[in-house]
Amino acid sequence: MKSLWSLLAAAVLLSGCAYAGPRALIATRPLYNQAIAQTNDQELLLNLVRIRYRDTTYFTSVERIAASLEMNMSIGSSGSYSQTSSTAAKDTIGRVFGFGPGTIALNEKPTIFYAPLEGEKFVRQVMTPINPEILFLLVRSGWSIDRAFSIGVIEMNGLKNAPTASGPAPSREPEFREFADAAKLLRALQRDNRLDLVRIPGEKPSIELRFTRGSAASEEALKFKSLTGIDPSADRIRIILAGDAPDTKSLVITTRPVMAALHFLATGVEVPGRDLDAGLVRRTTRADGSPFDWQEMLGGVFRVQVSDREPVGATTMVHYRGAWFYIADNDLETKSTFELLTQVIALHSAPPSTTAPIAFTVGK
Questions:
Q1: How many helices (H) and strands (E) would you count in the chain?
Q2: What are the angstrom distances between the C-alpha of 315 and each of 61, 141, 143, 338?
Q3: How many CB atoms lie within 10 A of CB 200?
């Protein structure tokens, strides 16, 4: 009889080993992936809400996860079986086989390493202006140029994109309308394949936004060039950073730091009326004293809604100051902008390049 139990224990042990290999990876990796993505979104949304209230922001990152599987076995004279599951994901993470006073136990021991964003790393990733190369990569990867410029550019050829909204929400409405008009014209040209961003090789690489054949004289192109003071005959517009020598075929841009982009988008966070009445959030007004709606500036591309009850149909939500702040799952514009913001942060967080900076040129 003892030999029979020994054979049974060996069979169970082999079954456990099979789980500890590929099956463990299948069971756990998707859960870690989903948990990290979900909590990253929640932290970013939480910091946007904090900015709206002028509360202190704090950023952490999951630097590393080390998970080990441990198997212990002892053999007795009677058999039993049980399993434990993750209450969050409802997937089995442990199995216990009992043999009288003995057991076979498989347990997972995860160790998660967090890193706060502070010091030199905080300055480089959050407080320094966004590299124009990032805007080029985003547009070339399929993002609309007006959305990328709205987040990343604070001024181009003197057209201001709400500079006063790059910090705590101002008391008066910002200047943004001409910039928004120019960005929409670029988007119209891009959407119809009449405009493209192109990298120009050379000793000092540059990027051009080029108009396709005949498009430089189109109504949208001429309106854009009129707004930005660019030569109407230009079919290539060189984009340069503020401080470089401009000419009539250049578009001088000033990019925002990531923190300024967060302040800009935080204006799209709605707050309970009671918090406005209590003075916890600044009211922004027009010159005549009437309330200013920040969606006039954001154009509906970013909106964080608020509810006193836990919302249904939210893709990301956080509970803060007694209210639920959330992004609706069917709000595709906001979800797109939120995703773009995460990509800007990820790209800007990369180690600085050792190559010489490039000039950013728009033309075609």
A1: 11, 14
A2: 21, 24, 21, 11
A3: 16
